[in-house]
């Protein structure tokens, strides 16, 4: 049977025996970061497609603007999450700062979601049609 020293117990728990809020914030930041990377990758792929197609795409200017806006907001959210991860939540004076940062992240994520819904509504014309190599004539 393994025994846990009181020092080890206190490291995983915060003040008063409650779970450390920093551990929660770190896990939340990591999960949020993985989702941000996935969305950033999708937006980069969409932007690459648009730049390859060029002005032939019916909504080229609008799509490039929306995708660029989404990418910029995602970078801002990433920066806020990094800053939020450095805030020591065990200090009561940092609670207001952490709350403001968390609210800003939430607002920006909402805006990113709306922007990406609009991007999806315009669609990526041609991306769902198969590409034929060679001649299609019989």
Automatic annotation (TrEMBL):
Segments passing through the bilayer: 59-89, 101-122
Gene Ontology CC terms: membrane
Bilayer topology annotation: Multi-pass membrane protein
Record's subcellular location: Membrane
InterPro entries in the cross-refs: Ninjurin
The entry's keywords: Cell adhesion, Membrane, Transmembrane, Transmembrane helix
Pfam families to which the protein is assigned, alphabetical: Ninjurin
Listed name of the protein: Ninjurin-2
Record keyword Membrane present: yes
Species in which this protein is naturally found: Galendromus occidentalis
Family the UniProt entry places it in: Belongs to the ninjurin family.
UniProt GO BP: cell adhesion; tissue regeneration
């Amino acid at each position: 049977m393994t025994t846990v020293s009181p020092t080890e117990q206190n490291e995983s728990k915060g003040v008063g025996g409650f779970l450390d809020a920093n551990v929660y914030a770190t896990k939340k930041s990591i999960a949020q970061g993985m989702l941000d990377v996935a969305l950033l990758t999708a937006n980069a792929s969409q932007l690459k497609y648009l730049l390859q197609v060029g002005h032939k795409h019916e909504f080229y200017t609008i799509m490039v603007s929306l995708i660029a806006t989404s990418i910029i907001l995602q970078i801002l959210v990433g920066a806020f999450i990094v800053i939020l991860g450095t805030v020591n939540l065990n200090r009561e004076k940092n609670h207001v700062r952490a709350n403001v940062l968390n609210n800003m992240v939430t607002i920006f994520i909402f805006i990113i979601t709306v922007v990406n819904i609009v991007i999806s509504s315009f669609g990526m014309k041609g991306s769902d049609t198969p590409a034929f190599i060679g001649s299609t004539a019989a």
